Amino acid sequence: MGGLYHGKILLHWCDSCHTPVLSDRCACTSRTRAVQVTPPGDARPAFPDDIEFVNRIYEEQFGMSIIPEGQIALLNKVPDNDRMEEIVVGGAIVGAIRYLPAKGYWEALPRPEAALIEKPKRRLIVIDDGAVMSVKDGRSLLAPGLVFCDPSVREGDEVFMMTKSGICAGVVRAKVDADKAGKMERGQVVKTRKNVPSTYVPGKATWDDAVRANADVLAKAEKASGKFIADHIGPYEHLPMSVSYSGGKDSLATLLVVMNTYQKLPILYIDTGLEFPSTEENVRDVQRQYDLACVRIESRDEFWQDFELSGPPARDNRWCCRTTKLEPLRRHIIENYGEDGELVSFIGQRKYESFSRMKNPRVWRNSYVQNQVCLAPIHTWTALHVWLYIFRENAPFNDLYRHGVDRMGCYMCPASDAGVLEKIKSVHPELWQEWEDAVSLWMENNGISKSWFESGEWRTRGDDAA
Ligand SMILES: [Zn+2]
Q: Among 130, 179, 193, 286, which is most buried by a count of CB atoms within 10 Å?
């Protein structure tokens, strides 16, 4: 993780409204309780497709669903080798899912609280009442304490440890396969662990309820962002201004807060030619709904010219940002405002996005495009502030969020987690095919074997050198 962690976990839960609240008090006047999600703590709504996806993973592995119908669920991205998400339901962390790139597989990691939602039907063991106390103290479960082991259990699996009366005594890792566990007379069957308990209070609610519960929170966040703009815009107010718009939720919330607290500005959209179709649609929708001018910069040709020379960009060799974004923007400023011209951009950067973003300033000059002055009005917002604000405003957001993709921008971005690229591939197979064809042709021309693309090596080349 490294470095100081500057973000307080803001996520709370109201057990009267059954919604998340980003404060210790709900708009209904109830006190809320903190939800101890893993930092940086940038939880976001689980949309219907996310819920289906998570439930399918749990159904396949444990014969249960983990997100009940009608309840609000959140996903919280946890730092991991690839993609890992905590699942929050009823104000409790009820489990997680984790992508294992080498296996191409999403692993379900339930917490004991999950068994309060639905009883698991697979991958469970039943233990003797006599063993419960010692196991709860974190001592290991020995063979004589085992009453039943589901035949689906394999060594290394996460399994539910249930009592005879059907209460979950913990989630543990199996040390042996089911057939071996049944024959054991001594030794450890599972590896126990201390789980940090979390309070699960079920109850139905909608996202409209969540917006109401956070009315004060949103009003306060909006006002603070307005004050930030008022306090910092002074020296730059004579310059041309726009809101950098990517088609993502953060740039949308930035656009809304700038319109609501400062003034209506044009949006600046850079079309790299690698955007999702829904991003193009969203740019049009937003323009239409708010009657906005759009400064559009296109950089498709530049990308493919450099691709010929350098091959696909990689995680630590992201020449694409300079080629498709920074350089076209620098040229745009010079062409429109002259060599010494400057412009102001409102940008949807937020500190809760990642640990590295925590340290970024809120007003800065782009290090490559020195004549771009950047301001980040929603720097202190979490993803949940952003979403609740978008819901409150009834703003048109990128449809792809409804289909399980939570980051916009270039569809093949090599910096993405493998788990996210797999998702994108399943939602937009035709885009992925285009990319695969382009990279394959380049590989052929450069004598590189096919496995280089399939293994994902194209994304990670040069990592070791960094
Ligand atoms: Zn409430």
A: 286
Chosen domain end from 72, 90, 111: 111
Q: Provide the whole-model pTM.
A: 0.94
Q: Give the per-residue pLDDT at 463.
A: 64
**Tokens of residue 215, six digits:** 């009315």
Q: Is 346 left (phi over 0), alpha (psi -120 to 50) or beta?
A: beta
Task: Return the CATH number at 153.
Answer: 2.30.130.10
Taking the centre of ligand 1 as the mean of its atom positions, its distance from the CA of residue 138, in whole angstroms, is 36
Q: How far is the CA of 17 from the centre of ligand 1 (A)?
A: 4
Domain hosting 76: range is: 1-111
Residue 45 alpha carbon to ligand 1 centre in Å:
18
Whether 136 and 127 have beta carbons less than 8 Å apart is answered as no
465: pLDDT strictly greater than 50? no
For residues 248-262, give the mean pLDDT: 98
CATH number of domain containing 414: 3.40.50.620
145-203 pLDDT, tens digit each: 889 999 999 999 999 999 999 999 999 999 999 999 888 888 888 887 777 788 999 99
